[in-house]
Amino acid sequence: xxxxxxxxxxxxxxxxxxxxxxxxxxxxxxxxxxxxxxxxxxxxxxxxxxxxxxxxxxxxxxxxxxxxxxxxxxxxxxxxxxxxxxxxxxxxxxxxxxxxxxxxxxxxxxxxxxxxxxxxxxxxxxxxxxxxxxxxxxxxxxxxxxxxxxxxxxxxxxxxxxxxxxxxxxxxxxxxxxxxxxxx
Length: 184
Fold this sequence. Notes:
- This protein has 184 residues and is mostly helical.
- The chain has a single domain, classed as Skp domain (Protein Binding, DinI Protein, Chain A).
- It is built from five helices and two strands.
- A two-stranded parallel ribbon has the order 1-2.
- The chain starts with a helix and ends with a helix.
């Protein structure tokens, strides 16, 4: 009986003390909120302001064109009673051309705005990739995900590295501005 207890204890200490975690590293995961970066970083704010400013100019131009079309419609309605048929048809065709030109301008502006947004946010995203990769390598992260696109439903604030990324991005943006000033 005493031997059985000794064998059991020896087996327990021999096999029970093995730690199976020797081969497995603990995964260090980080989360970045791209929307917060756009809203709070210097580069994100500048990009948003540029896009908004260009959009406002385009909207103002479109409203002017719409007002011009409305004015032409009213004039045509008033004059159509006293105009001959050929002149009336000619005026209506001119109005349709203006409406088509407006629709074409709206499409062109929409495309230009999307291209501007893709260009500005693309540069921001490229800078972010470099910064996130640098942080990931330096601090030993296994995985860094974007909060909204990555399907993250919940993440504790302890793994959110967004503020560090914003600080580095602002510093990078400041360095770029300094280099541009030195070249002038």
